[in-house]
Amino acid sequence: MTALADPTAPPPAPSPAPRTPAGGRRGRPPRRRPSGAGRTLHAGPLAYGILVLAVLISAFPFYWTLVAASRSNADLAQAPPALVPGPHLIRNFEAVLEEADIGKALLNSLVVSGSVTLGTVLCCTLAGFAFAKLRFRGRGALLAVTVGTMMIPPQLGVIPLFMLVAELGWVNQLQSVILPGLVSAFGVFFMRQYLVQSLPDELIEAARVDGASTARVFWSIVVPIARPGMAVLGLLTFMASWNDFFWPVVALSSSEPTVQVALRQLGGGYVHDQSVIMAGTLLGTLPVLLVFGLLGRQIVGGIMQGAVKG
């Protein structure tokens, strides 16, 4: 006969679940807290001191330009010179307008710099996309030649370029300054490196499967992804074109000047009027500061947005 269980006996204790050697339950690996999680890094007094010093060193040239533009030439010749703005800013601006056609020069520089920036961003993005993601014969050799042109001093090509411009009848015309700067080797290499890292091949392959052409892939996929890099390249190109002096002073005359060519006419005489020169420099610098102030936050935000991987 089978023995009956004692009803008064306590129930057996449940057996513990088997554990892994690491100490966790089977099928559920132990969770590890990521390194640095929950910690906030705070800058110390040394970091703030270095940042403040860097800001002061960077901003002092602009402040000194304002001080010199608002003083007279005699005030600048004093020892030690004045370090606070003076009352002659408006008078120096009027002298700038009398000695040079600064209004026309600002308009010409805006046309030249805007056209060069738009052309460089578009052409360099197209070439960078081709070198980064398209497969064609001679791609490596063409890229090497493009990068190699960066090692040639631009002064070596001034005479052949001026001869070409003279044959076309473009001397003293703005297109002689705009067309040679529409493409740059640095811009092509910059956009190529940016698209290699930021543009996945899977997106292009998916667009090809959907029947998109190369032009559709460029405008619908490449341009939105490359927008942060295009903004950075556009800002650098605009500043370089605005500050260019060597080629505009060769190709243009005083009747069609850019800002840098017009500033050469300031402060003439036996004794150069440094205050008038500084006032013209301040007028020529304000548009660049305005562009940077309007686009700087968008450029930084676009770079940070493009750095986030979903």
TrEMBL record:
Instruction: Cite the InterPro entries for this sequence.
Output: MetI-like, MetI-like_sf
Highest taxon of source: Bacteria
Name its cellular compartments.
Cell membrane
Entry keywords, A to Z: Cell membrane, Membrane, Transmembrane, Transmembrane helix, Transport
Question: Which residue ranges have biased composition labelled Basic residues?
Answer: 25-34
Task: Give TM segment ranges.
Answer: 41-64, 106-129, 141-165, 177-196, 217-242, 276-295
Has keyword Transferase? no
UniProt entry tagged with the keyword Cell membrane: yes
Q: Which Gene3D superfamilies match?
A: MetI-like
Instruction: Specify the protein's topology with respect to the membrane.
Output: Multi-pass membrane protein
Q: Spans of biased composition, class Pro residues?
A: 8-19
CDD domains cross-referenced by the UniProt entry: TM_PBP2 (cd06261)
Q: Where is this region: Disordered?
A: 1-39
The principal location of this protein is: membrane
PROSITE patterns from the xrefs? ABC_TM1 (PS50928)
List, for all copies, the residue spans of the domain called ABC transmembrane type-1: 106-295
Identify its protein family. Answer: Belongs to the binding-protein-dependent transport system permease family.
Task: Please report the name of this protein according to its UniProt entry.
Answer: Carbohydrate ABC transporter permease
* Organism encoding this protein: Streptomyces gulbargensis
